[in-house]
Amino acid sequence: xxxxxxxxxxxxxxxxxxxVLDPAADRIKHLVDGLSLGRARGxxxxxxxxxSLHPALVQLPLGCWLxxxxxxxxxxxxxxxxxxxxxxxxxxxxxxxxxxxxxxxLDRKQRRTGLVHAASAVAATxxxxxxxxxxxxxxxxxxxxxGLAGNGVVALAGALGGHLAHRSPGxxxxxxxxxxxxxxxxxxxxxEGAPPPAHEELRTGHDGPEHAVTEPDRPGSGASHxxxxxxxxxx
Length: 235
Known about the structure:
This protein is mainly alpha-helical. Helices cover 56% and strands 9% of the residues. Strands 1-2-3 form a 3-stranded antiparallel beta sheet, with no helix packed on it. Helix 5 packs antiparallel against helix 6, helix 5 (59-73) packs antiparallel against helix 9 (140-166) and helix 7 packs antiparallel against helix 8 (108-136).
């Protein structure tokens, strides 16, 4: 049963072609690269962890803001929702710093997508700030509305971030499962699939039965290769 391909990956690919973003991206990259962060740069980039720290850091604001909206929609404690909104905002600065440091290491096309991702994250943060202000002023409905809007925008930011990490060029190819034979170093060099397995043949020699292993033909070789070993003993 055939299914219609989703247009979403194509939409998320679009920012990579927005060359109009290059001047701003180049200026921001120059600023980020020039920051004197010392050991903090490696700490925020996750060099001690073995991978980027940014995806882990964003879990605090995302979790807090989503939890606040759940409390809002279920009529639970407005005080708890306000505190969760504030706690999420407190987790934004380290997540943004780590994200900008990762972004500066990307290639030009990836930086375009990353810039839209960052702009969406900043917009979501501004909406959550408005939500917190409204909550503190006693305007609960406005606080709920701004919070929900912020969660919608941050969902877009998350979609772009995941797309950038797992689908864009240079990222891990996790979006499309691999099918067919396993790839080998020889196959990568020749552009072909994995060679078929070797076959073992039994033949009889003067010294007794021998096993001969026939290797498949490889590019540039004239014929199959045989390797034998005897099970008999010479007289």
